[in-house]
Amino acid sequence: MRKFLDAEITQHTMKLQQMGAKVQVINSKLCYVNFDISGFKIQYVYNVNKKGNYFLERIKPYPMPIKEFELEQDVIDIIEVDVEQFKSALKSHNIEEFINISRTLNKTLKKFEDLFLYYNIPGKEIDNIVEKLESFEKEIDDLETKSERLYFKKEPENL
User: Fold this and answer.
1) Parallel, antiparallel, or unpaired for β 64-69 and 40-48?
2) Per-residue pLDDT at 117
3) Does residue 43 contact residue 53 with C-beta atoms inside 8 Å?
4) Residues 51-79: tens digit of each pLDDT
5) Is the predicted pLDDT of residue 5 greater than 80, yes or no?
6) In 14-33, which positions are buried (b, 16+ CB within 10 angstroms) versus exposed (e)?
7) How does 55-66 read in b/e, with b if 16+ C-beta sit within 10 Å?
8) What are phi and psi of 58, to 5 degrees?
9) Between 58 and which of 64, 97, 115, 149 could a Cys-Cys bridge form, CB atoms 3.0 to 4.6 Å apart?
C-alpha cells in the first residue's frame, strides 16, 4: 500500500512541477476529531504543516478554517472551547437558523470566487457588492452591541 501511495505522490508531484509549481512533500500527521452531542455532529481536522505548526479547521457543522498553532495542546484547548460553545449554542432556539446562515455564507463565498475567477465584473457592480458587505458587517456589529453575551471563558477573536 505504501509503495502505491509513494508512486501516486511522485506522479502528482511531477504533474504539478510541470505546471510550474515548487512542491514539497512531507510526511505529516492528519488527525480527524469527531464529536456527537446528542446527534449534533462536530468534526475537526488538523495537520502538521512544513513549519511544524498545527493547522486546524472545523469541518462540521459547517467548514471554518480556525487557526495555525505552534503546539498540539493549543489545538486541543481551542477544540475544547469550540465544543463548549456549541454545547451552549445548542440550547438556543435559533441554532438551526444560525447553522443554515453559516452554510449559506460559505456557499456565497464559493459563488463569489467563481464570479471573480470566471467573469469580468464591471467596477460599479463590485462597488455594489462592497456596499452590501459593509451593510452586513454593520448589522453584525449592531447585533453584538444589543444582544446578551452568553460565553465568557474566551474573548471573541473576530468581533
Assistant:
1) unpaired
2) 96
3) no
4) 889 999 999 999 999 999 999 899 999 99
5) no
6) eeeeeeeeeeeeeeeeeeeb
7) bbebeebbeeeb
8) -90, 135
9) 64
d(CA 153, CA 66): 18
- Distances in Å between the Cα of 105 and the Cα atoms of 34, 92, 127 are 23, 20, 19
Give pairs for 59-64: CB < 8 Å, separation 24+: 61/86, 61/99, 61/102, 61/103, 62/99, 62/102, 62/103, 62/106, 63/106, 64/102
Q: Structure pTM?
A: 0.81
The values of phi and psi at residue 28, to 5°, are -135, 170
Contact between 34 and 41 under an 8 Å Cβ cutoff? The reply is yes
Secondary structure in 3-state letters for 89-150: HCCCCCHHHHHHHHHHHHHHHHHHHHHHHHCCCCHHHHHHHHHHHHHHHHHHHHHHHHCCCC
Angle at the Cα of 133 from the Cα atoms of 129 and 138, rounded to 5 degrees:
150
d(CA 34, CA 46): 12
